[in-house]
Amino acid sequence: MSKVLVVADDMTGANDTGALFSKNGFPAATVIRPEISRRLREEKMVLCISTDTRAAEPEHAREAVRKAVERYGDSGMLICKRIDSTLRGNVGSEIDGMLDALPEGWRAAVVPSCPGAGRICVGGHVLVHGVALARSGAASDRKTPVCFSKAEDIIRRQSRRSCEFFCLQDIQEDRERTAERIRRSGAEILVFDAATQEDIQRIADLCQMSGVPVACVDPGDFSVAMAHRKFSDSGIRMRTGSSLLVIGSISEVTRRQVAYLQKKRQMKLCTVKIRELLDHSEGEKNRILREAGPLPEFFCLITEPVPLKLNCREAEEAARRLAEIGLAVLELRRTEIRCAYLSGGDVAKYFLELLEPEALDLIDEVAPLAVYGKAVGGMWDGLQILTKGGMIGEEDTLDRMLRYAEQKRSEGIIKGRIP
Description:
Residues 5-222 form the Four-carbon acid sugar kinase N-terminal domain. By secondary structure, this protein is α/β, with parallel strands linked by helices. The protein has 15 helices and 18 strands.
């Protein structure tokens, strides 16, 4: 069910923030039509809306944001106002519109930093790759030039609400004191310095500690950090993406490992019919793709257990076609799948050839003869890869391998990105 609403002032901002949420384990979608289906709300934790108001008149921008929050959000959701990383547009007016739609007592936490893109805020001044905002390219923007470098100055000139500023020292030193200051602040807009991802994580901690209902105003990183804290603390399970299992082995060891995983976890098992794969591969592929709807934790392609008498050429061709179907599923659900588990030497070989990375970065041996790595280069750069022979391991080895990959992804979320 949707738990986060992101309101951006243009479509690329909505898409960018949604992609950041998806990358960090929160399935997201940008809403194109005014009406949102029940299915979309059930499938996506994050809804992104574009009001297309960056260059609009301030009053129009304020009203558009107010209506968007009232229509698509509620006070139980995390509300995020996505702003441009160079503070172009109607930043203050749109904060007003957001707060107009929320119950009394809500604050807007403004974190105008995106360290990964070279945007930081120090002493209240926004720097773009070390250059003051008012001297950066944003100052000469044709539609919405930025004339000031201090975030608070920009907001005060556009908003009718009071502001309070928190410097780096405030967020890096006495946490209890700063959380109490947030709690007692009479200002409705709180503006924070942040020079690193660690600073952004600290601000999220402080807002959570304060107990004050906070709406996020930032280019995206702070919103994701707050979502992580809100959902972890409330017991809502945060997904770190799905895993695709492509299994060509028909060994009894493999069957036991898959059965164990199916008992323990949420898995959709899709049995591939070997004879159909060889004689009618396109039809078999289409059948499987129809089953690959929104994915649970694991989507498993496995060859049927009935041993067929295949010659060497047929066995190799079956492995190649199974790998092709695996890649087709990966392409279909590219925003969901973060890890590919490959079992059976021929299947692993063909799948990796089709994936076309420059190399496979070998990172760890999760269990004896069970390998964890990542694709390097190509379209699927960074995709987690697990490989294991069909006869290798105990009943729980497959489960342990997949949990290891999940842990690596979770560690990346805490740091603000998928590793």
